[in-house]
């Protein structure tokens, strides 16, 4: 059930959370499927509803540092510096958890991932519920993340969804673990270059390291409505050939690359990195006529590096 985020809808959603029921809500990145983070039974229902593997920990959403302090054992200077610059916003920080945080939230890890969403409805909901909210992206496990309330309703018919319109970023938060060196476990809406202005030593974890430290990186993700073949930037000719033999194929590429594929009108992804990130999941979810999605790789810089991470994980094959 989609509800505009009126004060009465917010009260209703907060009451549902307090009863241990799941509620979907908008954030600036993607929609979240929320539960009271301090109620293990409520959190278990989130795993169940999503069909989420139980080794994949959840992000806990809070209104600010005072609430973080109640969940973590320490808040190192690097965390405080990141928080000062990027919160509220699409940055998730992994910190040592207090015992108060149920093990089911962190999938048994000794750390908890926290962030302050930059969305008035998300913040109002946490405030009204009076508890931190554990929330994965509000999609069935393995599907592309939801950037619109209708995407959530498609995956969870009957669920209470606060409809905040299309998500501003359309790409999930960047997940950072501190330590020596601090590392990005999941690329996301804040580019690494920008995080390095605060943490110059920040590295991007190798895929193997990210999979070891961030279980979510091990699982199949973002499966589009039909097979997706990703062509590297050196393989434009191969992509042209594939298009020539299958007139029902759908082309997915940045506006700037469309001229490489004359005669084909690409599924709209937008011109700027911000537009491309914003439209990617919607493009992967939208049902269209066509046999297969043929995607042309994007240059791995700034925000597009995170978009490429999602495309690679969505792809059935890379050419
Ligand atoms: O933008 C976002 O981050 C959205 C919105 C709703 O906030 N949430 C989201 O949650 O994308 P989810 O569950 O789809 O992805 C959570 C990611 C996974 O890759 C998971 O492995 C990682 O965060 N994560 C959570 N807790 C962790 C921990 N303690 N240590 C390492 N990684 C963790
Ligand atoms: Mg997710």
Account of the 3D structure:
There is one protein chain. By secondary structure, the protein is α/β, with parallel strands linked by helices. The chain folds into 2 domains: 2-213, DHBP synthase (Alpha-Beta Complex), CATH 3.90.870.10; 228-318, 3-Layer(aba) Sandwich (Rossmann fold). It is 33% helix and 16% strand. The chain has 12 helices and 15 strands. The longest helix has 13 residues, at 273-285. The radius of gyration is 20 Å and the shape is globular. The chain starts with a strand and ends with a strand. The mean pLDDT is 95.
Keywords, please?
319 residues; alpha/beta; DHBP synthase; four-stranded parallel sheet; 15 strands; binds threonylcarbamoyladenylate; binds magnesium ion
Q: What's the short story on this structure?
A:
The strands form 3 sheets. A 9-stranded mixed sheet has the order 2-3-7-4-6-5-9-10-11, with helices on both faces. A 4-stranded parallel sheet has the order 13-14-12-15, sandwiched between helices.
- CATH class descriptor of the largest domain: Alpha Beta
Radius of gyration: 20 Å
Which residues sit in consecutive blocks of at least 5 with pLDDT less than 50? none
The proportion of residues forming helix, as a percent range, comes to 25-40%
| Beta-strand share of residues | 15-25%
Query: CATH homologous superfamily of the largest domain, by name?
Result: DHBP synthase
The tally of helices reads: 12
Query: Can you tell me the number of structural domains?
Result: 2
Q: How would you classify the helix and strand content by structural class? A: alpha/beta
Q: Would you count the extended β strands for me?
A: 15
Largest sheet: 9 strands, mixed
Listed once per kind, the bound small molecules are: threonylcarbamoyladenylate, magnesium ion
Strand order of the largest sheet: 2-3-7-4-6-5-9-10-11
Distance between the termini: 41 Å
User: Which descriptor suits the 3D outline?
Assistant: globular
How is the CATH topology of the largest domain named? Answer: DHBP synthase
- Please state the second-level CATH architecture of the largest domain: Alpha-Beta Complex
The ordered H/E elements are EHEEHEHHEHEHEHEEEHEHEHEHEHE
Mean pLDDT, nearest integer? 95
